[in-house]
Amino acid sequence: MPYSYTPHHFEDFEEGQTFESVGRTVTEYDFVMHSAFAGDWTELHTNKEYAEGEEFGERVAHGPMTFVLATGFVYRTGILERTVLAFLGMNYMDIPNPVHMDDTISLDMEVVETKHISSRDDAGLVVIDTTMTNQEDTVVFEGDMKFLIKKE
C-alpha cells in the first residue's frame, strides 16, 4: 500500500484519479487527545463502564474524530503538500458505522471534480470523494472534500 505520493498542483488532478492511504490503528491515546483538544468528554467515548452498557458495548470514536482521521489520511498521502490553499468544506458526510478502539482504518480517495475558478488565476477547485474502512472493510466514513489547490 502506498504511503506517499508526489505533491499535486491543480493541473495534476484528473477526474477519476484514485489514491489510497496507508492504514493506522486507532488507540486509547487518540480518544484521549481528541477529547482533550475538543473539550468533548462525552461518556460514550471516555467512560468504559458506561459505554459497555450502551448500544455499541464499548467506547467508540467521536463522530468529529472520525472526520479528523479521514482528513489526516488525505494530507498524509502527500498529494496536497504545499499545494493546498484551503479546505472549503463538504457537500456530504456520512458516518455509517462507528470506529472502535484498536480498529485499523484506511482511506480510499477518488477525484470527482476539478474546476477552474473565474475569480482565481492562482488556484482551482478539486473535490475528492473519500471512503474510510476498517480492517473488516466496514465503511466508517464517507464524504466529498473540497479543496482550493494552487496552480503551477
What's the structural blueprint in terms of helices and strands?
Blueprint: E1 18-20, E2 24-25, H1 28-38, H2 43-46, H3 48-52, H4 63-76, E3 84-89, E4 93-94, E5 104-116, E6 123-133, E7 139-150
Antiparallel strand pairs: 1-5, 2-5, 3-7, 4-7, 5-6, 6-7
Protein name: MaoC/PaaZ C-terminal domain-containing protein
Domain MaoC-like: 15-118
Task: Describe the fold and architecture.
This is MaoC/PaaZ C-terminal domain-containing protein. InterPro entries: HotDog_dom_sf, MaoC-like_dom, MCH/BMMD. Residues 15-118 form the MaoC-like domain. Helix content is 22%, strand content 32%. The protein has helices at residues 28-38, 43-46, 48-52, 63-76, and strands at residues 18-20, 24-25, 84-89, 93-94, 104-116, 123-133, 139-150. Strands 1, 2, 3, 4, 5, 6 and 7 form a seven-stranded antiparallel beta sheet that branches. The longest helix is centred in the middle third of the chain and has 14 residues, at 63-76. The mean pLDDT is 95.
> Shape from CA axes?
elongated
Strand content: 25-35%
Number of helical segments with 4 or more residues: 4
Q: Compute the average pLDDT.
A: 95
pLDDT < 50 stretches: none
